[in-house]
What does this fold into?
Amino acid sequence: MVGLFSVTILVLVAVVAGTAVGIVVLRIWRRIRNRRLAALAAGPRRALLAFVADNGEEGSEDLIAIPDDAWSAALPAALGLLGKLRGDAHAALVSVFLHRGAARAALTDLHARSGVRRARAAQLLGDLELREAVPELCRLLTDRDHEVRVVAVRALGRIGDAKAAWRMIASLDDHDPVPSLLATQSLAQMGREAEVVLSAALDHPQARVRAVCLDALGLIGATGAVSRMARVLADDEVLDVRVAAAANLGRLGARGALKPLTDSLDPPAPDLLRAAAARALGDLGAPAAVPALAAHLDDGEFQIAHEAAQSLRRLGPPGIAALRERDNDHCREALALVAPELVGAS
Amino acid sequence: MTVVLVADDDADIRDLVAFKLEQAGFEVIAVEDGQTAIEQARSRQPTLAVLDVSMPGLSGIDVCRMLRAEPATAGILIIMLTARVQEQDVEGGFSAGADDYVTKPFSPRELVSRIQALLSRARA
It folds into this structure.
């Protein structure tokens, strides 16, 4: 019995000692490997920084000629820079990546079994802003892996090709969709060329999709979509979508947005929408909105009167003059935020 | 020589910005976190600071507010460098007292031009 106990203890001690030695050896090996990689990467990294700092005017041949093991060691730095640069420096770095065959490899990796490899490939193709990759990246919008879909949306936004807009909007209809804010930003990055598709999607059956498209239209400054957005403001069956329409009409700053927004200040529009319209009129920046906003400074709904006062403040001297003519808490609060010289000037 | 403080926890961006600014003839102090940025700003009194918004510990916005709050550092020109592009983020940077806001992805050439323009306006 004592013998069996001793053997068990000895085995346990051996296992613990073996594990401890294993951990130490692994740590030493990792440290040595990291030092070796850092030493290997130091030269290429310096060359890379100099190349990018010079906007790629000199040194591309040297970077292309770097041996594969040294390039691999410097790759994290190169990828980091690629994602954070634009302009000539970015274009120069892209040409180095293309010469080293990175795009070809990434396009192949989009079909890899591993989700991590597919996501990395999509990220690289986006950072390379490679338009030829758009159809393949669109295919990833319905990837089985949520993270891959998110990376694909971000990559398509970075490339900014409006041809992907409809596929991206369709992917929002998924049972496990990408975050709205990310989709909005990516669609907005596609610019005015996406305006027609985004306007058409305002008739999409899903409220979330309509709201994303409204935000994207607002961000790209799609003044051509004012009448369609005004229709959503007036008629959409979902209140949150109407509120999004009001906010984005204000953001557009277009003359055509004035009437639909002032029309939404009064009942039968719901109070939430009336407040959103009052806020949007301040964003719109049109002095012509002053009379309509001033008429709501004594509105029975606190939020509407508050937003009307704050919007008048943001409209500058004509709005501030209207605030000074009325004496209530909302006006006093708004005037307290105005620079003294502006109060005097109005 | 004009001294510029660069604070960014991303070593590649920090080194790139420092490299580019040194090329343009500035003396650069490069640091990797907000606390060190504050200490360097107090001791070295740079003319201008380029601050990354998202740093561990003190963010660029925090550093900006703290520099503006101290008479000795309140006059330092500040450019925020960040990947945050939402309107409220930009507004947050300016309301903290930043003089300019550069969003990533950024162009190193444009960053240097903005720094030079800011310095020219300050000298005028």
